[in-house]
Each structure stands twice: as structure tokens, then as C-alpha cells.
Write a structure and sequence with these properties.
Layout: H1 8-16, E1 20-24, E2 27-34, E3 38-44, H2 51-61, E4 63-69, H3 73-81, E5 85-86, E6 95-100, H4 105-111, H5 114-122, E7 127-131, H6 137-148, H7 157-167, E8 171-177, E9 189-198, E10 201-209, H8 211-215, H9 218-232, E11 237-239, H10 254-261, E12 266-269, E13 274-277, H11 280-284
Parallel strand pairs: 3-4, 10-11
Antiparallel strand pairs: 1-2, 2-3, 4-13, 5-13, 6-11, 6-12, 7-8, 8-9, 9-10
Helix pairs in contact: 1-7
């Protein structure tokens, strides 16, 4: 299946957030310009590695760095033969979890761990809201900021709107609310999640949960609603978009990895990121 980063919708999103996108033979090349020093080129999980096209774009945009994130080990070995080096830290999640959405709802539930099934059942009456268009994005982002505080990164309104506009009905923005009487509903958002569909794969793209949301198990309800939505949209796989990978250890990922694995599914690994640095005059000689 085609990775979401190789879809026209994702290319549209990055264009709206300041990247230059060149699309050739159904492969997206993302270019970021920097004053004086040139640019960097990023190619993420393409269907095919096209070194000559990459070099041509490097000449055109005076690239000082090219980043490839291959889909499989065979492509990684090819990049190594072209003098690309494995980066210490991948840009995309190098390990993830997939759920087979072609199974029935009951079978998907059955493969989950007991605590996930129990949490989904407990939250069946939790109030949720789907944000239908970009006009509601500010509400979504404000809830996100209130939930995680200033220490965590929260995408800009412009970036979130670009995501919604680019993916349209292939995106799902969900909020969950605490059921407390006497408090305005907008003040009660305790969790949120974004789901996207690229090609035939749905992605649990981004999410947040407040302390209250963790107590009420809100994110379990949102993931379950995302699974049901993805099945209705005929997606075949749900990609949890990253779990802990001992090859590139990041201990901050351990907590949400436990949460994601409670939904069952199977693990998928990618080789990591491969980079190449060079001075502009070396490109011209190639």
C-alpha cells in the first residue's frame, strides 16, 4: 500500500505549511529552503528509489542534505550502496502497530487485551464531538493546549487547518468531553484525536489527553470511534503511527506504546532514515 506521505493529499498539506513539493512518477519530494545555505530534500517511504531524479532536484534547489526513509531493507541496502548513511534518529516512526480492518468489528474487539475492551465498554456513554470543518479547529487546538500545557508541542492553527482542508472527508477530528454538570461544554474537552486516511490505510495521526481524560479513559473511546470510522471509509489497515523501538530508543514512547499495544494488531518495522550531506559544488560534478 502507498504510504500517506506519498499521497497527493499529504503533498497538498505540506505545500500549505511552507514546503516546496515536486511530484514525479507518483513520488513526492519535499524541499525546505534555508537562507544562504541552500535546502534539504526529504523523500519518505516512496514506492521506488530514484537516485537520478533526487540528484537533479538537489542541483535545482542547491540541496546540502538529502533524507530518504525507505519502506524496506532492500531499498535501505540500495541507499547504502549510494553512500547514504543511517541516521541516529529517524524522522518518521521506525516501528508501528497495524490493525487489520478487514476483520469484523467483533473480531477486532476480541484481539484486544482485556483492559482495552473493558475501557471501551466503560466509556460507551462518554460524550464525543466530530469537528466537521476547519472552522472548528481553533476549539480543537485550545483544548489541546489546555490538556498538555506549554511544555508540549502543539501544532499551529494554520497547520491543523491545512491538514483538514487537504484531507477533507478523509480526516476525522474528534474531541471527548467530561460529563460534569454546570460547566460550559467547551471547557470540558478532556481528550482529542486526529485520524487520516491515505490510500487504503487509516492513521492514528495525533492525539492528546488531559489528566481528567486519562482518568475517564477517554482516549480508548476515541480510538474505537476512529476504528469504526476507518472501517466505514473502507480503509484496510489502521496504522498507530509509532511505538517504542529499541533500535532508536526514546523512553518517552514507552507509555503510549503500552496503550497502543492494548488494541492488539501486529508490529511493522522500517529501516530508519538514511541521509547524505554534501557541498553544492559536489552535486554539480555528479
Amino acid at each position: 500500500m502507498i504510504d500517506i506521505r506519498q499521497t497527493p493529499q499529504y503533498a497538498k498539506h505540506l505545500k500549505k505549511t511552507g514546503w516546496i513539493v515536486e511530484r514525479h512518477a507518483e513520488i513526492n519530494y519535499f524541499i525546505k529552503k534555508f537562507p544562504v545555505i541552500g535546502s534539504t530534500i526529504k523523500i519518505q517511504r516512496p514506492q521506488k528509489i530514484r537516485i537520478k531524479k533526487t540528484v537533479d532536484l538537489a542541483k535545482k534547489y542547491r540541496a546540502f542534505q538529502i533524507i530518504y526513509e525507505p519502506k524496506n531493507d532492500l531499498d535501505a541496502k540500495y541507499l547504502q550502496s549510494c553512500d547514504y548513511k543511517l541516521s541516529k534518529s529517524p524522522y518518521l516512526p521506525s516501528k508501528t502497530l497495524h490493525i487489520d480492518l478487514t476483520k469484523s468489528k467483533d473480531k477486532i474487539l476480541k484481539q484486544m487485551k482485556k483492559d482495552a475492551r473493558h475501557s471501551i465498554k466503560r466509556t460507551k456513554n462518554l460524550k464525543t464531538q466530530e469537528l466537521k470543518n476547519e472552522k472548528n479547529i481553533e476549539e480543537f487546538r485550545n483544548s489541546w493546549i489546555k490538556s498538555v500545557g506549554l511544555k508540549r508541542y502543539v501544532p499551529s492553527i494554520a497547520s491543523l487547518k491545512a491538514l483538514k482542508v487537504s484531507f477533507k472527508e478523509r480526516s476525522l477530528f474528534l474531541l471527548a468531553f467530561n460529563n460534569e454538570a454546570g460547566v460550559p461544554a467547551k471547557a470540558l474537552a478532556s481528550a482529542g484525536a486526529i485520524f487520516l486516511i491515505g490510500d487504503k490505510t487509516a492513521y492514528y495521526w495525533q492525539a492528546f489527553t488531559s489528566k481528567k481524560g486519562r482518568k475517564t479513559l477517554a482516549q480508548y473511546r476515541l480510538v474505537w470511534k476512529g476504528i469504526l470510522w476507518a472501517k466505514r471509509e473502507k480503509a484496510k489497515i489502521l496504522d498507530f503511527e509509532g511505538i517504542y523501538d529499541a533500535r532508536f530508543p526514546n523512553k518517552r514512547w514507552l507509555g503510549f506504546t503500552h496503550f497502543k499495544k492494548s488494541f492488539g494488531g501486529y508490529v511493522v518495522e522500517y529501516p530508519g532514515a538514511y541521509t547524505k550531506f554534501f557541498l553544492f559544488d559536489t552535486i554539480l560534478k555528479r
